[in-house]
Amino acid sequence: MEQSATKAVTESNDRREAAPASLRGEHSAPERLVLARGIFTGPSARVSDDLYAVVKGGAAVRERHSLHLPKGATAHTNTYFGRFAASYWQRWTTVTEVSVGAQLVVGGKANVRLVASDIAGHRRIIASLVATSSGNVSLTAPLDQYVDGGALWLEFDAVGGELEITELAWTAQAPEQVRPVAIAICTFNRAEDCAHTVAALASDAVVLAAIDAVYVVDQGTDLVEDRPLFQQVRPEFGDKLRYIRQPNLGGAGGFTRGLYEVSAANEHADVILMDDDILCEPETVLRLQAFANLTVEPTLVGAQMLFLLNPDYLNVGAEEVHLHELKHGQKVPKALRNTSMLKKNQERRVDAGYNAWWTCLIPAEVVAKIGLPVPIFFQWDDVEYGIRAREHGFVTVTLPNAAVWHADFYWKDYDDWARYFSTRNSLIVGALHTDLDGKAITREFFRYIAEHLVGMQYGLVHTTLQGIEDFLKGPKALRDGGIDALAAARSTRNDYPETIKHPAATPPVNSADISVRRAGGEPSRTTLVLIKRAITQWTGRTQPGLIGVTREDAHWWHIGLFEHVVVTDASQSGVRVRRRDKARARALLIRAYRTLRKLRKELPALQAEYRRAVPELTSRENWARLYGIDPS
Predict the structure, then answer these.
(1) Helix (H, G, I), strand (E, B) or coil at 317
(2) Mean pLDDT, the chain, as a whole number?
(3) Is-contact 92 352, C-beta < 8 A?
(4) Cα–Cα distances in Å, from 520 out to 517, 545, 552, 572?
(5) For residues 599 and 601, what is the distance between their CA atoms, to the nearest angstrom?
(6) HSE-up (13 A, CA, CB side) for residue 202
(7) pTM (2 decimals)?
(8) Which stretches does DSSP call E strand in 449-500?
(9) Residue 2's pLDDT is what?
């Protein structure tokens, strides 16, 4: 079966189609470029309309691009998708003045106000008008008072009659040429999700006309092309859609394929990388593209992430990486995190260190200057590319009011095979872009490992050590793009029973024996507590019985008190059973000591080795080899 699948993928690569004609061409610009449109309802019923516009005083009739207000009602777009991020446009683009226009059908009289905020959220009116007849209206605002923060929005009053608002658009003077843009979607066995993402792009005629190509890179066995929805919308793209099958090389391999193909077709085309399992807001594509066309210098432009299960919540306003601590996904100071965008707006401009690739635009100049991503399968690939781009003078902007919905991270359990790639790749990226302190890094790893041993997460410790050990192999560990590493990371965890998730109703223990114990507050002297818990686990002076622990209480300092625990999985879809195993803990502790000693000793040489390998690893020739295609 595997040979047949590989053969099919190889044949698919051999039959590579020519790039879409639209991608190979150039674009003349209109007189004014649309920066954002007025959207009044979301792409799904799960999304609150108040993320787009808020109406008071009567029931409004909403369509995607129109809003009908009854007599006496008011509406405003001081909302997540309704605001115009003036601060970001003033700081990063050539735009010095923005206009907002709309088509009004006025039943009596309508008041229209163009309103601004500052870094503290204080409201001020920039311009206003009174409309007594139907037609186009337009208001203009200079972008000259928003460097540190602030946004623009519209307010409407339906006075004396009904009011309909359509064709709302924020515009600015267009550049001489509009850059071609393609979308690259990477997918692995999320065929239905991916089909819906593609369909979302096809649902908006303006967005569909603005993009020059869509590359769907399918690395799975449950194929997107077999989904009826994909086949249904495929003709709407005409020549623009390209479907590629290839071996599973992770997100790095899938997204890089899009960069590889687009840059070969048109060295001046930007690429928007987009996850397969998002809820796509098509308007975001238009906003990223417009911003990228008007930045002073080529800029990576990222969309923000809203939570899929909690759709009004923002993941984070902007992220950065702390390389010396091997930590990514760190909130930029003053950025919002895990915040309802129905209750609060992002007034302050916060500057990102990088943007994750749930949706992110990569300018053509970046690919031309720094090459392709490093083949590290997944996790940290987007971080590394953003850091490398910045080192070559290309900043990243995470643009507010441009977002997609992505699966909530806190529903994923930390004890997972993905921890292998997170560990290994954090070391690789740290080695490439900073001078790691071997003493500090190994001390931190030892603390981390000790906590998980105390928490009886032996498989997680194994997976972490596996990542460190493969980092110690040097760049040759990346030779196959991660295929063997993925198989090893998954299969070897089967030796650790606590990594297996069981149905909560039928755990592999007697439910009647489970006694739930809640945790107290976090201890203040954690190092001392860690030593105490380690002694407790080592000597077997743990509390007897079978203990049930909820996810929120699953801290090492609580679980370390017990011999045998049933812990709720972060996904809330089952439980895991942990049991003290002194022999296994001892073996892992010895292995950790030897591995970390070797890491501390060899880190300087490994840093130099990885840095020397970057040009070859990121070359088109290396990626062509991994894809099994002829680069000529």
Answers:
(1) coil
(2) 95
(3) no
(4) 10, 19, 11, 22
(5) 5
(6) 19
(7) 0.95
(8) none
(9) 38
Strand partners, 475: none
pLDDT at residue 214 is higher than 50: yes
Fold of domain 176-304+355-403 = Spore Coat Polysaccharide Biosynthesis Protein SpsA; Chain A (3.90.550)
Q: Are strands 514-516 and 543-549 parallel, antiparallel or unpaired?
A: parallel
Query: Is 562 strand, coil or helix?
Result: strand
**For the chain, what is the largest distance between any 2 Cα atoms, rounded to a whole number of angstroms?**
85
- Distance separating alpha carbons of residues 137 and 102, to the nearest angstrom: 6
The rounded distance, in Å, linking the Cα atoms of 329 and 326 is 10
Q: What is the pLDDT of residue 631?
A: 63
Tokens in use for 596? 């970390």
What pLDDT does 60 receive?
A: 94
What CATH class is the domain 31-173? mainly beta
Q: How far apart are CA 99 and CA 163, in angstroms?
A: 21
Strand bridging mode 319-322 / 575-579? unpaired
Domain ranges of the chain: 31-173, 176-304+355-403, 426-584
User: pLDDT tens digit string along 359-378?
Assistant: 999 999 999 999 999 999 99
What's the number of CA atoms in the CB half-sphere (13 Å) around residue 65? 14
Tokens of 245: 């099958």
- Burial class, 488, CB count within 10 angstroms (exposed 0-12 / middle 13-18 / buried 19+): middle
Please check the confidence at residue 11 and state whether its pLDDT lies above 50: no
31-173 matches 176-304+355-403 in fold = no
Indicate the burial class of 329 (C-beta count within 10 angstroms; 0-12, 13-18, 19 or more): middle
C-beta of residue 69 within 8 angstroms of C-beta of residue 75 = yes
* Mean local confidence (pLDDT), 33-47: 97
Q: Indicate the residue type of 273.
A: L
pLDDT band at 323 (very low <50, low <70, confident <90, very high): very high
CA–CA dist 282, 83 (Å, integer): 16
